[in-house]
Amino acid sequence: MLLPFFLAIGIIGLMMSLDGIAQGNSAQTSFGFTGALVTFAATPICVRVFNTRRRSLPQVRSAQTIEGETALLVPAWRGFSLVLITVLIAAIAFGVVYIGMLPSATQGTSDPIRAAISSFEFGGLALAVVLGSWLFAQTLTSLKRGKSLRLTQSGVHLNNGLMRQILDWDEILLVEASAEPRFATVRLQTVPGSVKVSDISRLARNRKRSWSVEIYTLEFDADSALVYHLVNFYWRHPEARKELASSDVVDRIRNGDLLV
């Protein structure tokens, strides 16, 4: 349902923009164009959500951790951050254009109620622009620093772009698929204080959380269920973790042996 909704709103915004061009109304043109850009830019995220189940094998490969340990690397989907940045730029522009339209909308009116509403609108839009700018800075920082999920014989290494979390397999108490706090999340419940956190950005949230690790699977270029089963299988089968340093893990994925 989300995909047709975004496409419909985007088309409406585009038609509004074209009508504004025809009438010489720059405010309507900007309003419609930025609205269309926001909704069209959000469309790939909707497609990614619908395609959480893949039919093709992910491009997993061996890689080294900072500590020099060989690991299975689950590649990140860079398109997620790029799409989000595009949406935020359009949304911020949308807010700025709307703020610029407010003075002309209230000019010449002496109605105190209308003036109060306009002041409230200005404050709300300014707050939205500030929050959008903060999220834009956070997303851009995350894109520059890179994201990765590495599974090694010793544990799980997650870099979400804003901080690096390391967790030993023996410290994991439960691996669960969850829809909270975000859709398609794999949550690792751990022994309190066992999560090692490093390389922390000033923009990172939950930097002091040391009792759980959350893997947001939509940020990785792999089937969401496969990410869950990879982590869950090697947590439950310590005798098989040596495969993570070789190509045997690809054979296990191809043969569907992660469910045993």
Distance between the termini: 35 Å
Largest sheet features: 6 strands, antiparallel
Strand arrangement across the biggest beta sheet: 1-2-3-4-5-8
Q: What is the count of helical runs?
A: 6
The structural class is alpha+beta
Shape: elongated
Instruction: Please give the share of residues in helix.
Output: 40-55%
Report the sheet-strand fraction. Answer: 15-25%
- The overall pLDDT, averaged over residues, is 77
H/E element sequence: HHEEHHEEEEEEEHH
- Round the Cα radius of gyration to an integer and report it: 23 Å
What's the short story on this structure?
The chain is α+β, with helices and mostly antiparallel strands. The protein is built from six helices and nine strands. The chain is 50% helix and 17% strand.
Question: Strands, helices and their partners?
Answer:
Elements: H1 2-23, H2 26-50, E1 61-64, E2 70-74, H3 78-106, H4 112-145, E3 148-151, E4 155-159, E5 164-168, E6 172-178, E7 185-190, E8 196-198, E9 212-216, H5 224-236, H6 248-255
Antiparallel strand pairs: 1-2, 2-3, 3-4, 4-5, 5-8, 6-7, 7-9
